[in-house]
Design goal:
- By secondary structure, the chain is an alpha/beta fold.
- Helix 1 runs parallel beside helix 7, helix 2 runs antiparallel to helix 3 and helix 2 packs antiparallel against helix 5.
Length: 477
């Protein structure tokens, strides 16, 4: 069992203020695999003070972008050497299939570090623009102390969407990992120390909701970056609005995959399996509404059912596993509750249902609903599990209407033999990320959502801008 007795604050491993602990439980075995301190508001105060000191008086914000980029590059090299270890650790703590962990859980955070290291090497802090009476300087400065609050589903991915650009900008950070998945942050702290990032620039305090809200409302925090549920995002936005504090939110999704009549179904199913079921369905970008025309509806239902039914369910550490357990018993019960809701609403279970595929572990049966409509709860609410709903549409206009008929707008896809026509469809769906015959998240392009899916963008140059203040300096003569 992995035991940690300290918190990473001010560049040191320090004893927590309280005696509370967080047990990390394997979703596969239901056994305790790790234990860390449960951070308290007093620990958050100490971490914020360290970040404040490092920002107000330390070297990090006063270095050039190129100098910070060089350190990020060094951190990326260290991360690359240990990414296999990181992938295995995330699989152990939250049940992500090891194949997905090796594909995304560790490599994508590494890609973010590499992108910002390369981008920052030539990024200019000041830009000269012509003014009415003389040259005007636009200066880019770090926003300050950042509170980064992340969920459990892709813990390193969402941490790095905040940490990498914030570090390049010159900010200092207090990271609050989710209580379900704190172990990966300890491994990352080791890398940060080895890379030589100055004390107090990154502080890590695993904690629950109370300490997290204390961090958000702390007067010495200049910006909050949050990924999680829309309900929690609304609460954080309210606190930040009251304090006029900078905030970025990456929230929920209920993405629609539009399958056009000319789509090659056998060719599409392989990529759609990843897009809809990645990480055991625990992904905000998951394509969980499958839209099929009435002309091919039965054929699409059959293809989706075959694709879902063929996924091997089992031990997440086994490379043959396609779908592992959900992160916690409460998540298992939540997803099973939605399966029952779908059945009660009149949708038909084609694959899966309420019978559990494993005697031990927090598993649910990967499930496909047919005969559903877009007004059902299973089509409108984020389930966060391996549950897909196939919804019929009359024509492309109707498909676009259904895709846009959601409070969310995070992601979406279209599947077609005509990629240029697919681009036309993409331009009409109000989401922040869209894929034609694929679903890709790239480090060099912005990621975020419309509507209730969030505020602001992460990744790419736009992700760096979220951690900068812009100062205009005009001069005469």
């Amino acid at each position: 069992m992995r035991q940690h007795h300290t918190l990473f604050i001010g560049g040191e491993w320090v004893a927590p203020a309280g005696t509370g602990v967080i047990d990390v439980i394997s979703p596969h075995t239901e056994e305790v695999v790790g234990r860390v301190p449960d951070g308290s508001p007093a620990d958050m105060d100490r971490a914020v003070a360290a970040a404040r000191q490092a920002f107000d008086h330390g070297p990090w914000p006063r270095m050039t972008f190129a100098e910070r980029a060089q350190v990020l590059g060094r951190l990326a090299d260290i991360y690359a050497a240990r990414q296999g270890e990181m992938a295995a650790l995330i699989t152990e703590e939250m049940g992500s299939p090891i194949t997905f962990s090796n594909l995304a859980q560790a490599p994508q955070p590494l890609g973010m570090l590499q992108f910002y290291a390369e981008y920052g090497a030539t990024f200019e802090q000041e830009e000269q623009r012509p003014g009415l009476f003389g040259p005007t300087t636009v200066r880019r400065e770090p926003v300050g102390v950042v509170a980064a609050i992340v969920p459990w589903n892709v813990p390193q991915f969402v941490s790095m969407t905040k940490i990498a650009p914030a570090l390049l900008a010159g900010c200092t950070i207090v990271l609050k990992p989710a209580p379900e998945t704190p172990l990966d942050s300890y491994l990352f702290a080791e890398m940060v120390t080895e890379a030589g990032i100055p004390p107090g620039v990154l502080n890590i305090v695993p904690a629950g909701r109370e300490a997290g809200e204390h961090l958000v409302s702390h007067p010495d925090v200049d910006k909050v970056a949050f990924t999680g549920s829309t309900a929690a995002g609304r609460r954080i936005a309210a606190i930040c609005g009251e304090q006029l504090k900078r905030v970025s939110l990456e929230l929920g999704g209920k993405s629609a995959a539009i399958i056009l009549d000319d789509a090659d179904l056998p060719a599409s199913m392989g990529m759609l399996a990843i897009a809809s079921l990645m990480n055991n369905g625990q992904a905000c970008v998951a394509q969980t509404r499958i839209l099929a025309s009435r002309n091919r509806y039965d054929e699409v239902v059959e293809a989706v059912a075959a694709m879902v039914g063929s996924q091997p369910v089992g031990d997440p550490s086994d490379p043959a596993t396609g779908i592992g357990p959900l992160v916690a018993k409460r998540q298992q019960e939540r997803v099973e509750g939605y399966i029952k809701i779908g059945m009660d609403e009149g949708a038909k279970v084609v694959v899966g249902g309420l019978s559990r595929p494993m005697d031990r572990g927090w598993y649910v049966a990967p499930t496909v609903f047919a005969g559903a409509t877009n007004d059902m709860r299973i089509a409108r609410e984020e389930i966060f599990g391996p549950v897909l709903t196939v919804i019929p549409y009359e024509d492309e206009t109707d498909a676009l209407r259904i895709a846009n008929d959601s409070e969310y707008g995070l992601c979406g896809t279209v599947w077609t033999a005509d990629t240029e026509h697919g681009m036309d469809i993409a331009r009409q769906v109000r989401t922040g990320t869209y894929g034609v015959n694929c679903l890709m998240l790239e480090a060099n392009v912005p990621f975020g959502g419309y509507k209730a899916s969030g505020l602001g963008r992460e990744l790419g140059p736009e992700g760096l801008s979220a951690y900068l203040e812009y100062k205009t300096i005009a001069r005469l003569g």
